[in-house]
């Protein structure tokens, strides 16, 4: 669902001074939001409805319902409407909750005005993903199947391939393999509710909903000046004859020389898919069943439509199957390929521990995942975020490589996976071991988090105000000789130095040794800050100097920050100046 606050036109309607004040707050924060005026409040609301993608009305809910009721069309085309009361206590998602983005807009308005979002969509209320919120077209008996999922009735999930869907509740399961041949028995589900995931044209009934995955790519070649009607008519005919649904088109693909071909580009625009083009040399390298020397002479490759269909959006022809060879009219050529699903691995940084330091994107990715992998104590922090049906793979300390391999294996099987780490997953955490194993079968999404160093720095004051270096003192993966050289380099370069993994029961001497290396280049009164359990229960901040720090106050839950030659204590806070001219 796109963020309505970024690119959409949001109409604000208010009747009272308080409402206008709240509307002003929204307009100041969101560049695409504006107050809509009219001869009356009703006129303003109708104007906003007609001219905006979403409406935030600072009015009574009943008044909004009476004014907008005659204008209602359908949830796929009507704008989203959020209603905010006079005191800005509640932001009610009134219309377009899923399809129009009203639920998300209510959350964002609530966050902006410190109002409570009120969302009554049934799936959201119980933490289930709505079928129309998965980012794919959905058709058929959406309401009936959604109700069956909510009511806990059996729903057969029948998919042509393993697509990275979010977690679905336990009552949504593949049909039984009644023949013992490893294949699901689709016919056994005809009498019950069904959720199909397919690019094929299938018969619909009152108990079947169909999700259309983005599996198809249409390669298009054309003569210069080809009419859009000819391209579109050929494309739809080819898809229909092959029993394929156009809602599963991921993109149109062609040669670079056709990037500005109006007939192809306008067809893509009407379908709502991108046009991807490839250089002739790349197309020529793809083995196709119907090469043409005539085409080679004209554009430098023996195939445009077939080769482009196989290359698709990401250039991985080895994961595509040509379903329809090139089919031509007088001026257009079309071929269609099916591209295999790619798993999804989100590497998620949870932040230092406090829920309010966890990013909204991290929470969204945890809800997007069907499988969540992580250290047991980190997973305990976020179990309330998981959707019903989420499979959780937890393990204890020291199993980092096993967790990384498990997450990659699940994603390689086509699933939606979240691999979590504390702080930022790319800083001394799970991103690097996981990405060592992740190959081209997997789409990787990185979700940054607030690091332990940033959380500690905020508590200490501003110790990281100038150049700084992070060094882990754990010699489990790095020889001590290498660590010592890095500490010495940071000392000689006069970097503020942040020590991760500073001291444990088994490693109780490394911190003292590292401080000794720094002491050779620092004044004895250089400030040192120790933060334990930043943002978590038992948080503690300890200030000392290079000369006075007792390593015994430090453990593995601590971050140690050693200042540079300019770092000083100001009112009990560590401050490293930037050296601005105004200081002179």
Could you explain how this protein is built, in words?
- It is a single chain.
- This protein is an alpha/beta fold.
- The chain contains 19 helices and 29 strands.
- It has a 6-stranded mixed β-sheet with strand order 2-1-3-4-5-6, with helices on both faces.
- A hairpin with a 2-residue loop joins strand 28 and strand 29 (573-575).
- Helix 18 (480-492) runs parallel beside helix 19.
- The longest helix has 15 residues, at 228-242.
- The two termini are 51 Å apart.
SS summary, helix count? 19
In whole angstroms, how far apart are the ends?
A: 51 Å
Q: Name the helicity range.
A: 25-40%
The pLDDT mean sits at 91
Strand order of the largest sheet: 2-1-3-4-5-6
Give a count of the beta strands, DSSP E runs of length 2 or more. 29
- Residue runs with pLDDT of under 50 for 5 or more positions: none
Class based on secondary structure composition and strand pairing: alpha/beta
What's the quick description here?
Strand 3, helix 4 and strand 4 form a beta-alpha-beta unit. It is built from 19 helices and 29 strands. Helix content is 29%, strand content 25%.
Features:
584 residues, alpha/beta, five-stranded mixed β-sheet, 19 helices, 29 strands, globular
Summarize the topology.
Elements: H1 4-7, E1 10-14, H2 17-29, E2 33-35, H3 41-51, E3 54-58, H4 61-68, E4 80-84, E5 90-95, H5 102-113, E6 116-118, H6 122-125, E7 138-140, H7 142-151, E8 155-159, E9 172-173, E10 193-197, E11 208-211, E12 216-222, H8 228-242, E13 249-255, H9 262-271, E14 275-278, H10 280-284, H11 293-299, H12 305-311, E15 320-328, E16 332-339, E17 343-349, H13 360-368, E18 371-375, H14 376-379, E19 391-395, H15 400-412, E20 416-421, H16 431-435, E21 442-447, H17 452-460, E22 461-462, E23 468-472, H18 480-492, E24 496-500, H19 510-519, E25 527-532, E26 540-545, E27 558-562, E28 568-570, E29 573-575
Parallel strand pairs: 1-2, 1-3, 3-4, 5-6, 8-9, 8-10, 10-11, 12-13, 13-14, 17-20, 17-21, 18-19, 18-20, 22-29, 23-24
Antiparallel strand pairs: 4-5, 7-11, 12-16, 15-16, 24-27, 25-26, 25-27, 28-29
Helix pairs in contact: 8-9, 18-19
